Fold this sequence. Notes:
Phenylalanyl-tRNA Synthetase, Chain B, domain 1; CATH 2.40.50.140; Phenylalanyl-tRNA Synthetase, Chain B, domain 3; 7 domains; 7-stranded mixed sheet; 5-stranded antiparallel sheet; magnesium ion binding; nucleotide-binding
Amino acid sequence: xxxxxxxxxxxxxxxxxxxxxxxxxxxxxxxxxxxxxxxxxxxxxxxxxxxxxxxxxxxxxxxxxxxxxxxxxxxxxxxxxxxxxxxxxxxxxxxxxxxxxxxxxxxxxxxxxxxxxxxxxxxxxxxxxxxxxxxxxxxxxxxxxxxxxxxxxxxxxxxxxxxxxxxxxxxxxxxxxxxxxxxxxxxxxxxxxxxxxxxxxxxxxxxxxxxxxxxxxxxxxxxxxxxxxxxxxxxxxxxxxxxxxxxxxxxxxxxxxxxxxxxxxxxxxxxxxxxxxxxxxxxxxxxxxxxxxxxxxxxxxxxxxxxxxxxxxxxxxxxxxxxxxxxxxxxxxxxxxxxxxxxxxxxxxxxxxxxxxxxxxxxxxxxxxxxxxxxxxxxxxxxxxxxxxxxxxxxxxxxxxxxxxxxxxxxxxxxxxxxxxxxxxxxxxxxxxxxxxxxxxxxxxxxxxxxxxxxxxxxxxxxxxxxxxxxxxxxxxxxxxxxxxxxxxxxxxxxxxxxxxxxxxxxxxxxxxxxxxxxxxxxxxxxxxxxxxxxxxxxxxxxxxxxxxxxxxxxxxxxxxxxxxxxxxxxxxxxxxxxxxxxxxxxxxxxxxxxxxxxxxxxxxxxxxxxxxxxxxxxxxxxxxxxxxxxxxxxxxxxxxxxxxxxxxxxxxxxxxxxxxxxxxxxxxxxxxxxxxxxxxxxxxxxxxxxxxxxxxxxxxxxxxxxxxxxxxxxxxxxxxxxxxxxxxxxxxxxxxxxxxxxxxxxxxxxxxxxxxxxxxxxxxxxxxxxxxxxxxxxxxxxxxxxxxxxxxxxxxxxxxxxxxxxxxxxxxxxxxxxxxxxxxxxxxxxxxxxxxxxxxxxxxxxxxxxx
Length: 852
């Protein structure tokens, strides 16, 4: 909402020297957020001039210009303007390319030193063989419109000012506007009437309600016939509750909008179009009541407010033919639909340049009905903005009267004696508010008298009664008609806190109870994310929407289980292709990798933690009632029981190389070892004993995928992805990935991860190479060696797998490095060798291993 300051001063005690910034500082006290400051971007000197001479000159470029002499100072008065290029005689020489004026016309002259919109500075300059000391201005050059009819001739605007008059004051271009943000629940502020009331609240001053000065006559039998025929009420409410119609005849279709009204509309953000349209907008901004003007001579018969019929259409004012919905509320006459109620009128009854008789519509429509219609047809407007937030029912007749009076004043019309006013006033709710409740809820002591005063300042009807149990005063409050948002005690408490001042509310930081903080799962997730980021991986976030094929590829380890996998289908997906909630994080992460690789980031390690959605046998409830009806407890229980399980998962992608190439350095390509290593790092920081064993997954490369196991339960997979899938994703063929069940991992983690003591005694290293059958899993051999070596074994790792010359066909060699250490002494070679031999013996017995 933009608030021209000169307009606001008519209804409030806003000081004459107050700026838009001062106004915003006051309004923010009552909860109206400041947005911006607007002005006309014009600085003087810009004055009224009279054309004394006009000499056309033809030039070699084929253009005809006018060399003009323009008087800018009244006869017999001294020249008071000061600036380089201003003639002391008060007659300026100006070159003008327009031709729509004559000698004797009064025009707008921008003198040297003036600045026009776009930071266009006016100065004396030589052009077409003359020194042009200024410019005769057009509407577009002054930023007043898009007209290209040449310069402004003031007589055509109905003005005959004195020569030398300051144009900024003459056309009210020295005004400015403050813009505020109005929340949806405070639609009453979308008017000068509402803003004036809020300014009075903020400054503890008086204000003049513009509606009080308007005397609207009562309805009579001579008015235009109007009937309500709303057969499809929404939420139990009819689409229209009041319809006021007034007719104004014999208006001058050539009458123009006065400069004061035009300037205010522009500052308010509305482009002037024609006098009738501008009057309707002006009254809407002044009182908050949207109006619509019909060409009365184009109307036929009774006006009926009804819902649209199936297949009905309407050509709206923007020239588009719209197919109407049966819930759309229409204004109709005998010819059919002539407007969408509260949204936009029809083209057939539009007020034109030839209109001499206007019918004014001032109505009160159901907010939900208007909101649905304007969204359905994508027709947001200043009128629908107010109609969807709620309009004061009691202002409709005053707004119609105000518009009619302006038409008489500015267009010479006569108000028809007929007055139409159809509808029943709404019953305002009564809210009971205990006098001590604001203090209890806000935490600041509001005296009873202060609460009573604030409620009265709101315009509410307040009475009092006593609570028989404790004697506390109870205010019985009937909110004013323009405050349809005040329905419960908490609404009134908010008003008390707002109008007394938010600054009075003490800032008290809550003290958290001891022993609270992050949960174990939250701590673990943060620790895991920090560990992966520290290892060089980049955390990303992707949408949870995937295709059915992607869920089946990565959401189940085998093709058989994938076909029976359950998943949640979206009712209104962003994309038809991605119409399912994810059961795995990998598809979104692969899309992130694909986008980055396609943009040249070929060496990439990314990870993501997030929820997946695993539905059970039922989803939701089939007994959900229609809108506006609360579901029963049984239905709510069914809905809650049908909410899919949403465990946390973690996934990572490794593609490209582990480092950049350089002199004497060849980077290593990522492979299956990297995601397994990342999984082991996660296990280390969580204190979980994670086992790795060979596995299979139809989304991974056969033979290059491992199962991640905790307590004999598979919680994830790591390895290289299937080459065919990588080809479809346009990713390198050796891209590796890992995904695991983060909730299962955290559940297995101890509450406290104990740090291992630092042993000061030296370690002893020994290697062992074993020849086993080709199908023996290296991880199983390593596990056997680890168990058999005893407590002295501190670490074991596989460092080589060999098959070839010197190794029997069908066999392979596995080389392990064993690190032995004692916590209380220095190990001897014999002790380490003895533990090594015990491990070898176990491998021979369990796997048929032969020492190489």
